[in-house]
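Check out a protein:
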Amino acid sequence: MTEQEAVLWLEGELGVSRETMDALKTFVAFLKREGSSQNLISASTLDHIWARHIVDSAQLLQFLDHAPATTRWLDLGSGAGFPGLIIALLTDYNVTLVESRARRIDYLLRAVEMLDLTRRVHVAGVTLERLETAPYSVISARAFAPLPKLFDLAERFATNKTLWLLPKGRIADQEWQDAQGVWDGNFQVMKSITDQDAGILVGTLSGHRQIKAAAATQGQRP
């Protein structure tokens, strides 16, 4: 996908308004300026930001079925703002960006203020382990942690209806196969539109197999 194709996809497939496109362009310019002083994204993707980062984030919205404006979205390891900050720009959702690195926290706080998103976007400048437990409608994570560790850390923020949207690149199938030895869930590997070899894990988590088995055993005791 070229940069022009990426812009056309946003306008055509997602129906992004001119005002929102302007906000996205403002964010891209900000990202490039900040990138000169800290390594926010790979240098090899600087000339492909719209395809590799903006559309790569925005495509996650295709997997939500008429989600209400009250949707609460938790983005783990937000880093440069992908996908969480892009989701916030494209929707009316309440988005929590989890980031523990000091310079990234400062960057995200300034980006949120610049984009006038302070009413709906919360930058949680802590490790995930220190974040207060609360249920979320959607949990996303891009290059945050291997799947078993990700589920271990984030399960407490999910219900059995929480939608997990996890871009996992070319190892998506293998990660889910490996995780099924420990975790129960209903996941599909969806193709990324920005990289046909990359997969996105989309689905719901129903629990840890050992914990469920222990609970079932206790329930059967006389």
The beta strands are 72-76, 94-98, 121-124, 138-141, 163-169, 183-191, 199-208.
